[in-house]
TrEMBL record:
The chain crosses the membrane at residues 31-54, 74-107, 128-157, 163-196, 217-237, 257-282. This is Polyadenylate-binding protein 1-B-binding protein. It comes from Quillaja saponaria (Soap bark tree). Keywords: Membrane, Transmembrane, Transmembrane helix. It comes from the Eukaryota. Signal peptide: none annotated.
Length: 320
């Protein structure tokens, strides 16, 4: 990022996107390898897992299916879903760690390579994992509140007042969407904080909450646009590739599927870059200076590099 730190707070959304897209040019080989080894498998899994689960779901909906076969299909479906969630969780954190670390290294003019990024991931991953657990707890709480509220609404309203029931349901869904978008923004920023600052877990979430003040709407727009784009890509993929066997040729489905995976790879890479740039924007907005020397040393700590001892005592003046 070539902009002065005090200028970052004035970036608009198009400027953030332009700034984020320009970052890989500073180390194209590193970002190419990160994209190929981490972001591509993540994006492919997000779209392709429905290809494996859809046939099983169709069989499970068949009322004439053999009970023994149904049990086997349920077991297989749960196994696929479990493996998918583990894979999704792991590669999501790995991609975040790699991109945030690489962007920060470039920001501090630290020598960066794919090997140095991979070497730093184990320690970064542990911090991100703890932060993710706290965010997951928050998500479980607000999802539980949403379900309970919806059930209470249905029970409380007489079924004859269908309009009132519909209005209440829409209101709860909107509130759920707002909380979901805000929590996602909180999580993304807390992930960057966990890598770049000596805090993680609940402390990183608290720091993220403080940084979002004044930029909540800004962050919500970015997250909402990302979620909508991903939903559109997923919807087209399911409509053409997964469910389009009767309407589209195999070649067409392969081409469209490959194209959509490529688009999602780009969206995920840009999303991670925006996530990093937005952290610096929030720091600038709150006039929290970023000591590049301290950040450089902090990043070096992940690699086990020697960090010089800062002391007012001049060792060379001591008598032997």
């Amino acid at each position: 990022m070539d902009l002065a730190q005090e200028e970052l707070q004035f970036l608009s959304i198009p400027e953030i996107l332009r700034e984020s897209i320009s970052i890989p040019r500073r180390s194209p080989k590193t970002f190419y390898l990160i994209t190929l080894t981490l972001i591509f498998p993540l994006s492919f899994a997000i779209l392709a897992h429905s290809l494996f689960t859809h046939p099983l779901l169709v069989q499970l909906q068949n009322p004439l299916a053999d009970p023994a076969q149904t049990k086997h299909e349920w077991t297989l479906l749960l196994a696929i879903q479990f493996c998918y969630l583990i894979f999704l969780f792991a590669f999501s954190l790995l991609s975040t760690a790699a991109v945030v670390f690489t962007v920060a290294s470039l920001y501090t003019s630290k020598a960066v390579s794919f090997s140095s990024t991979i070497s730093a991931i184990p320690k970064v991953f542990k911090r991100l994992f703890i932060t993710f657990l706290w965010v997951s707890l928050l998500m479980i709480i607000y999802n539980s509140v949403f379900v309970v509220s919806l059930v209470l609404l249905i029970i409380a309203i007489d079924t004859q007042h269908s309009v009132l029931l519909l209005f209440g349901g829409i209101l709860i869904l909107l509130l759920f969407l707002v909380v979901h978008v805000y929590t996602t923004a909180l999580w993304h920023l807390a992930s960057v904080v966990s890598v770049l600052e000596p805090v993680y877990g609940f402390a990183a979430m608290k720091k993220s909450y403080e940084l979002l003040k004044g930029k909540t709407l800004f962050a919500s727009v970015l997250v909402f646009c990302y979620l909508v784009i991903c939903a559109i890509i997923g919807g087209i993929f399911r409509g053409v590739v997964v469910h389009g066997g009767d309407n589209y040729a195999v070649y067409t489905r392969i081409v469209v599927g490959g194209f959509l995976v490529g688009v999602l790879v780009i969206v995920n890479l840009v999303g991670l870059l925006v996530q990093s740039v937005f952290y610096y924007l929030c720091k600038s907005y709150h006039h929290q200076g970023i000591d590049k020397t301290a950040l450089h040393d902090h990043l070096g700590g992940y690699l086990g590099e020697y960090v010089p001892l800062k002391s007012s005592v001049q060792m060379e003046n001591l008598d032997v």
